[in-house]
Queue: 3 jobs
Job 1
Amino acid sequence: MLRFLTAGESHGPALTAIVEGMVSGLPVTDEYINKQLARRQSGYGRGGRMQIERDRVTFLSGVRGGLTTGSPITLQVVNQDWVNWSDIMAPGPQARLNERVVSRPRPGHADLPGAIKYNQRDIRNILERSSARETAARVAVGSLARRLLEELDISIVGYVCRIGTVEATRQENPDLPKLLESLANSQLLCPDPQAEAEMVKEIDQAKAEGDSLGGVFEIHAYGVPPGLGSHVHWDRKLDSRLAGALMSVQAIKGVEIGHGFAAAAAPGSQVHDQIYYAANQGFYRRTNRAGGIEGGISNGMPIVVRAAMKPIPTLYKPLLSVDLHTKEPYQASVERSDVCAVPAACVVGEAVVAWELAAALAEKFGGDSLAEIKERVNRWRQLVRQV
């Protein structure tokens, strides 16, 4: 069973993750993961923190000679900004707890409910962990999963299809090479150049007004074999697991599988994917409105998931709030933030989708080495063509 745990604060020394259950013999390098970390930090509309951090991963265990060993993998991403916070965030009694105290909760953030739940008088103890900075560790973890999926001929690609009021032309079952080509030079991970130009204008306007923007991104997973997940128990349904993983990403407020909410407005004849059969490929479908999942089980078509990200709650034109200590009305605290981070959220989304698919594969096929799980997955693919 694949599982992981992350730890670390936004302005602490480092972010750390421990991954357990990864097969042995998986080729992986720090540079491979660093490329994904760099993608997370890119995108038009990012803030000042991205000018400070240059995220790079260090393996502290579980990898030797460029191959996983089968033992727990420890990954560390150092916070470059720690040097500016080491006295304030120090773990010992020397910490300067009276400096940079946050008492004004930001609407839309975890600040107030977190302070209430954990009985904190300094909201910094909440925002340091609830910050989206935590997703750097999850991208590192998800990159390990992506590396495993690549060895099993499964590809994942995400793209931004909406920012603010601007929506890109939706691509129905896009061809993978063409999609990758269209994203290669995009600064917003958007395959529609005309829509991207309008998105940039909208981001610039929001920045000038001290506001922020959200949007929608879409993720496709190609080559996923049928049979992942289960209809038997609620917590084993693949669509449930993917939706939960995406909803766990900071600022995500909605998830769709396939046609999602649009399916509710259409008759069944225009929603369900008709089934065909060919001797050389077995059962297949010519449409993919279900997003590759039926009854909680992958059906062999590409997995398609879509997530909606709300505007970032930290605004340079802050909203009204109430001071935690004095109970007096104030404008909410301003922490360094982005105007728009939808492309970054898309990269994080790819990572969590990769993790859930890798976990589902590990559960179905088992195996302690890459060779073992490869052999089992290939055998399964041959069998399903003969059903």
Note: The radius of gyration is 22 Å.
Job 2
Amino acid sequence: MGADLLGASTWVTDGGLETDLIFNRGVDLPEFAAFPLVEESEGAAVLAGYYAEYAAIAAAAAVGLLLETPTWRANHDWGRALGYDAPALDRVNRASVALLRRVVEEAGADRALVSGSVGPRGDGYLAGGTDAHAAATYHRPEAESFAAAGADLVHAMTLTGAAEAVGVVRAARSAGLPVAVSFTVETDGRLPDGTTVSGTLARVEDEAPADWYGVNCAHPAHVVPALDGGAWQERLTWFRPNASTLSHAELDAMETLDPGDLDLLTGSTRAVRDAVPSIAVLGGCCGTDRRHVAALWGVPSPT
């Protein structure tokens, strides 16, 4: 459906939004949720400034810009914990797309896409549910909000198993949007539910193929064990690594930011990209900021 959307281009996407906001910018994010900032004038300005940094990186690297909405937590369960009902979530998901459209316009980006970001129903570090139909029903309102707001695609990140990925794909299809799904892995290269990336991707391909696949929220050194040289690797398009080599459990317990070793991050990311030349969308995840993503693209970091 969306095979031609990315074309033959490569794309800068952003870094670890939530960790950057909390640890580098001093922003309080209850429930690790950035989406409430969209409706606050000061918060929206902080978000716009954050995304503008990645527009500058894309311009310096002379590649496309793919911005992902700050809505990783903007679903029913996490929204309810923050006092957002269904109409409020619809409003904030739409407003998030509009915010990124303004960033793109102000940056004057020649090639730019806006992706509606979807997160797991539960915790991105714990194995999720096994009912694909329930997942499709659950995530459909998010996809519909993104479609109504004019997003170019849906991207589900930090998924922990095949069932929720299948559900997100079906939800995006029902809303008429192309869809990418990215999985997270533990230090052994397996998903939190113990399955392999290759096996998980095969199940999704069998039940509800996504347009693109990826890996996020894991250091490149943790992704290498998952790469077996199989043809499935050619389907990987997104890569958003963590800065730290710590495990998810260790990161969850930390009260300070681990920015990682930048040389190790860039070198190990290069190794992953050499093994998976199909990766076209490159950014960061937890612990990364503009400095990490600029280094991954080999350009100066915006100041």
Note: The mean pLDDT is 95.
Job 3
Amino acid sequence: MRALVVDDAAEGHLARTEVADPRPAPHEVLVRVEAVSLNYGEVAEAASLDRPDGTPVGWDAAGVVVRAAADGSGPAEGTRVTTLGEAGWAELRAVPASLLGAVPEGADPGAASTVPVAGLSALHVLRRTGSLLGRRVMVTGASGGVGRYTVQLAARAGGEVVAISRDPARADELRGLGAHEVRAEPAAVERPVFAVLDAVGGRYLVDAFAALQAGGVLVSVGRSAEEDAVLAPEALQGAGGGHDRSIRTFFLYGDPAVDFSADLSWLAAEVAAGRLDPGISWRGPWTRFAEAAGALLEGRLHGKAVLEVG
């Protein structure tokens, strides 16, 4: 089969080449991939010098089951699925049942491929914050993949969403997704917030932490700013009554025992029904990976990029 693998000599540090077909374990299904979506973290990782040439990459992919799991744990052959894992930018991938969800018949595989990392991260972080009904929720990096899903899910949970986006052209779009307030940076937010989902890090994390009310929580899900977050001593003193605030980290694979299948199926159904908008802003064949990756790394791409495999 063909797959995208690390190649430091190639444009975008990836090359499409022939590799061996995956050999599914008894608890894994074999999926013929139709579309994949890109995340900033995996693209940056592929472009780093830390991974040897020939390493397969890719977290998110959607397609069709062509071989059911030998132990009967997964969906039947012919089921359309969205999948999470590694080595997904390929014509075939082997996936355990816990890392895939069913996709409605007739749904767009490109849209379904945006669900795993971005949708699951948004859903699980918001669950960690507790009830959002009537509470203010700040989302940094709101125009990105995780941020966009978070804005929509937080608004549906009854939160008063404060979206942070450096692109003023995105303000009306974010309000259409459910944001009550749109600001260019956390320091511009005037009223305290109960919770923060921070996908940017650096100064944004520091300023967002300062905006938390007493008992509030900030969850760090990304560091796209690629700069240090330095908290001054007074930031931890609770000036103005902001005591008992916390910073939590988040890693999607943090609990190796978690089964994502139900959540992936629900998110895929919501996207297919039009109740969640994945915000696909770039789409093309997977031969154009370098073009999509460059736009993502240079900050020219907001939302999700989808590559069609064929």
Note: The chain is about 25% helix and 25% strand.
